[in-house]
Structure prediction request, 192 residues.
Amino acid sequence: MFQVLLLFFIFLYIFILIPASLGISYGIRERYAQILLTIFEWSTTNGASFCTDAETDKITKEHNAKIQNIIHNKKKKSIQLKLNDNEWAATDHNVIETIVNDGLDFISAGINSIIDDVVTIRFKAEQLASWNLLTRTGCTFEHISWKLTILWVIGCFFRYLILFPIRACIFVIGATHLVVIANVAGFIRNKK
Prediction:
C-alpha cells in the first residue's frame, strides 16, 4: 500500500508539479472548462422544459434576494472628486466614509477582474432552473430529469473521488516542500 501511495506522489510530482513550476501546460484545464460549458448548456436547455414559470420565478426571487447586497457597484465618483467637491462638507467622518466606500469599490472591481475567466464570464447573476451539478444544490430539483440526475451523480463521483484526492495530494506535497525548504534555508549562515 505504501509503495502504491509513494508511486502516486512521485507521479504527481513529475507529471504535474514540475511542469507547472516550469510553466508547461497540458491543456487539460482548458478542455475541462470546455466540457463543463457544454454540460451546463445542455443541462440548462434540458432542464428548462421541466420547470414551470412559477417555480422559475420563485427561484429567481429567492436568489436575487440573496445576492442583492453582494453585487453592488453603484458608486462612480472617485475619492479625489469627492474631496475636491465644493458642495461636499469635508468633515473627518465624510472623508473616512468616502475612503472606505471607494476602497470597497476597488476591492470589488479587483475581485470581479480575478474571477472574470473563460468559465465564469458565461454566467449571469441568476440561478439556473436546473441543477448546476454541485452537491450543494437545493433538493427542489431532485427529479427534473433522470439524465440530469445521472449526470449529477457522475459529477459528484468525479469531483470527490478523482479531483479531491489529486488536489489533496498536491497540497500535501506543496506543504511538505514549504516546511523542508524553510528548514534548509534556516541552516544557511548569514555573511558578515
Q: What stands out?
A: The chain has six helices and no strands.
